[in-house]
Amino acid sequence: MKAGELRSALIVLLLRLAARLPLGVLHALGVGLGLCLYALPTDSRRTARRNLELCFPRLDAGKRRALLRASLIETGKALLEASALWLWSTDRTISLVREVRGLNHLEAAFAAGRGVVVLGPHLGCWELTGLYCSRHYQMTSIYRPFRSGAVDTLMRQARERGGARLVPADPGGVLALRRALQRGEVVGILPDQDPPRRGGVFAPFFGVTTHTMTLACRLIRQSGAAAVFAFALRLPRGKGFQLHFRAAGPLVADEDLATAASALNRGVEQCIVESPAQYLWVYRRFKTRPSGASPLYPRTLVRRLRRRWRRRTRPATGLAGRPQGGPSDGSSIS
Q: In angstroms, what CA-CA distances link 298 with 210, 310, 332?
């Protein structure tokens, strides 16, 4: 067995063992993991700290440090709870949703015969957001495989068990999204990942010039679909989640993509301020910079070595692993 296969098998085994625990215990263990991420000089800590410096420059240093600690604890919870969200039965997982707010935004769109683009930022438990929507509505999402085959199979089964239809991250997949909206169904998109160069424009996000996807805005404008933000916030002490739906502003469908992308980012910001600690600050959101601009993240020795290793082990074509040139894997929330 190759090293990569062995690592994948170990990850799946750990997930299956963790799924035997109740959510409260998983979250308690997640607190411990998050404190380790905070205490040690990890990439996660460095990236989250830099993101918070960029997005909240006026925040007092002590408060920003407290937010960093809290956000890494929430990241630890997110990592541990994935086992339950992927391996518990659909009914048991959905039962974790204790309250739903703003569902009328979806119902009004369906009553008018419109499709809905659900925009689920990396806030709280986005896996649960996708599962809830796919359980209650016909839902299509773009899917991009993980590098690990065993983990990819597990995740795909978990996301499809609620009834979601997963389509590849290529032009055919985008066409499937358009057809789903024409049928008045739901399309799920994660709007806050760094897209390929040709799939985004630069727009402000917390005051930082940010490479922002245009796929969601184009789909909304071309189909006439309603746009709704959705996120599931963790309740304290493992009590479950509170699911929120919010109507997006009309400018997300503007013909000018820069204007639409700015409105999209403002909507994500408004979701994040509900619970800043539960946002995924460990993601390098500002990795792609405008031409001539300086990088915002320092390149550490570990990251340089990791990148060199990936280049050596990358397949020669795009037929294995992730599709080449398609939308980013942030396009799916199912």
A: 17, 19, 29
